[in-house]
Amino acid sequence: MTQSLSDKRPGWHWTDYWRSGREEVMTVNTAAGPVTFETRNIWSDWFAAFDTGAVLLDLATGSGQVAGYAAATAEGQGKAFEVVGVDYAEVRPLAGCTLLGGVALEKLPFPASHFDGASSQFGIEYADSRLALAEVSRVLKPGGQALFLVHHADSAITRQTAAQISAYDRVMANGAAVRQARRAFSAHRKGLPSASVQAAEQVFAEAVRRAQDRLEPDPAFDPVRYLVGYLGDLADRVASYEPVSALARIDGFETGNSAWRHRQLCQTRAALDGTGLDGFVQRADRCGLVLADRSEIADQRGDLITWRLTFRKA
89 and 62 in contact (C-beta within 8 Å)? Predict the structure, then answer.
């Protein structure tokens, strides 16, 4: 049985994402297909400056991509790092690193002055930055370094994400198509009279048609276009699906949609404009994290992607 949304553990939206096998990379959709923002060199160059024996903390580690870069850098240079990654979501094991799930950045389970360096790739900005930055400062040794790649409010990624959310909400607005899908298959499962079943199927098909009419050729509609196509297939072949199985698939469909939309909204809300970044830096400074560098980074096509921030623990 599919677990209801209300019964899921906190952070389940991200747990499902990492369990799907995704890595923590950012992509921008283009006419030629998605373009990945590659961060390996950024992290490899930064980790290379640490001495052997360094103890490193990766915040909001997700798949452990950045933690893995740290371990690979150490191996490539003949060094030994202790690499620990933490995430609010559940995480999978990663060779050469210790990854801990169920950890809030606002309350790190480590002693003071424990780490030589802290990293975050599109993660710390999702937390309560006042509390999270205080925790980073607490667990860093004096002179410890931190590098954060932070979502930029004007980046190609944030603009793309906002456009996709808008398109999704416009097409799937009140969830009518999903509700009517459930009613149509429930009518079959309950063995209602033929007239009632046909009426439910017709209402479902009409709800899908209305959703299809709201689709536009803009690429921002591509994610929701796929979802409407899935519902359209169900509407066209209701009788060919076993009702209980179809209802379970609809539950999974709705759960996946909820997780996707939640992650997209989190990303747009976490992204920082110039003023937001000023506040972030000021909060860091009050915690004893002194800004060493602040810059904007673009991808290989010249599209703005992220803020790059480096700090030193006073």
Answer: yes
Within this chain, do residues 149 and 62 fall inside the same structural domain, yes or no?
Answer: yes
For 238, the domain range is: 158-268
* 57 and 86 Cβ atoms separated by less than 8 Å: yes
Tokens of 280: 């972030």
85-107: pLDDT as tens digits: 999 999 989 999 999 999 999 99
80 and 44 together in one domain:
yes
Domain count, the chain: 2
CA 162 to chain centre: 14
Q: Which CATH number fits the domain that encloses residue 59?
A: 3.40.50.150
Dihedral of the alpha carbons of 123, 128, 129, 135, in degrees to the nearest 10 = -90
The answer to whether residue 289 is domain-embedded is yes
Residues 129 and 240 in one domain: no
| Rg of the chain over all Cα atoms, to the nearest angstrom | 23
Which phi and psi angles does 23 have, rounded to 5°?
Answer: -105, 165
DSSP readout, 56-90? EEEET-TTTHHHHHHHHHHHHTT---EEEEE-SS-
Neighbour count for residue 29 (Cβ, 10 Å): 17
Q: Which residue(s) pair with 94 in the sheet?
A: none
pLDDT tens digit sequence for 188-234: 999 999 999 999 999 999 999 999 999 999 999 999 999 999 999 99
pTM across the whole model: 0.89
pLDDT digit string, tens, across residues 267-302: 999 999 999 999 999 999 999 999 999 999 998 888
**Residue 12: CB partners within 8 Å, gap ≥ 6?**
89, 259
Dihedrals φ, ψ of 62, to 5°? 60, -115
Q: How many residues does the chain have?
A: 314
Strands 115-121 and 140-151 come out as parallel
Strand 115-121 and strand 304-313: the pairing is unpaired
